[in-house]
Amino acid sequence: MIATKNIVISIVLTIFLFSSCASYYHKSYQFQQQFSSGNIKEAQAFLISQKKAAEKKDRLLFFLDRGVVEQMLGNYEASNVYFEKAYLYNQDFRKNFKYDIIGSLANPMLKPYKAEDHEVVLIHFYKVINYIQLKDFDAALVEVRRVNISLNELNDKYEDKKNRYKEDAFAHLLMGIIYEAKNDFNNAFIAYRNSLNVYQRLYSEVFHVTVPEQLKKDLLRTAALNGFRKELQQYELEFGIKYEKENSTDGELVFFWLNGLSPVKGEFSMNLVRSEGTGDNLVFANESGPYNFPINITNQVNNSKQEGLADVRFVRMAVPKYKARKPLISEAYLVVDGKKINMELAEDVEQIAFAGLEDRMLREIGKSITRLVLKQAAEIVASNQNKDAGFVLSALNSITEKADTRNWQSLPHSIYYQRVSLATGNHDVNLVTNGNGINKQTIDFQIGINRSETVFRTFHSLESTPPLE
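The structure corresponding to this sequence follows.
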C-alpha cells in the first residue's frame, strides 16, 4: 500500500512540476515588460532568442507577438510571414490527443494554445495594415473579407449560445477605405453602408461604440461621387448633416491610432452548489451569480461510473477571466496645417474580448461541470475504499484544477481612425495624445502626397495601467 501511495504521489508531483515548467508564455514576461514600455527593439530581440517557441505549444502566441513587433518596426513583409503562420496554424488546428488527455486531467495550459474568436479576427486586421503599407490593396481586400468569413465560420459551429460578436463594423469600414483608395467608389459606398448598419444594429448596443462621424462623411461623399441622389438625401436627413463638396484636393491621409493594451487573462473560482434536479438531472447553481446549470450525467456515463454521484454536493471550478488594462491616454487628435481633427473610436477590442470570453464560458461551462462532478465522485469512491487513496486523488484534483490564462497580450485596447484631405506635396502632421491633462505628447510625421494618392499611417500608444482586479 505504501509503495502504491508513493507512486501516486510521484505522479501528482510530476504533473505539478510539468504544469509549472517555464513555457514561452511564462518566460514572455520579459517580452511584455519591454513591449509595454515601448522598447520594441528589445522586445524583438527577446522573441528572436525564443525561436524554439515556434515549435511548441505556445507557438501561436509567439507568431502573433512577432507579427506585431515586426509591424511596429516597419518590417511589413516579415510581419505578414508570422501572421500568415498564425492564420494557417489556427486553420489547421487539430486536437493533439496526448495534450487533450493531459489537459483534461491536469492544467489545460499544457495543451497547445488556440486563439479566442476576436484574436482570430484581429490577425486579419494586422495583415490588412501590412498590405496597405506595401500598397497591395488587392491583398488587403482579401484579408478584410476574411474577417466576416471567419466570424461566420466561428458562429456556425456554435449550435446555441452564439457569440454576440457576430459581425465586425470596423472590417466593413476598412473595406470601404481600401476600395476608395482604389477609386472604386461604388463598392466603397456599399462597404460604408454595411459598416453603418453594423454600428447601428450591433456595436452601439452591445459594445457601446457609436457611429463615427467620419464614417457618416465617408458615406455622404461616396454617395455623391456615385451620383446616388436619393441615398444622399436619405443620409443627409438621417445624420442631420448637409453634404458640402470638399475643396479640390490631390490626396488623402488615413490615420489609424491604436490606444493602450488589451486585457490579460487571470482566473477566479466559481463555487457551484448542488440543488434538487428534475429526473436524472443534477442542477448546480453558482453561489455568487444568477446562473443554473442542469447536467444530465446519467446519460453520459455508464452504470459502473455512476457510483458516488449521489454524494456530490459541491464543486469548485477555475474559470478564466479578463483583467482590464486601462489606457493612460484618453484622447488624441491630428494637427494638420493648424487644423485640429479628433481621432474617432472605431473598434473597442476590450469590450469585444470580454463579451467573447463570457459567451464561450456559457457554452463550455456545462461540460466542465460534468468533468468536475465525475472527478469529485471518484474522490468520494476512492475515499470510501481507502482514505489514503482518497486523499491523494483529492490533492491531485486540487492541484490540477487550473484555468487557461493565456492570451494575445500585445493587442491594443481600442482602435481609432481619421481621414484628412491633403494637397499634393509634403506635409507636417502631428499626432497629439493626452491623458487627462498629463502624459501629453506630440508625435511628428512627414507625409508626402502624390496626386490621387491615399497615404496610410499607424501609431500605437502603449501607455496603460497594470491589470486591474
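The two ends are 45 Å apart (CA to CA).
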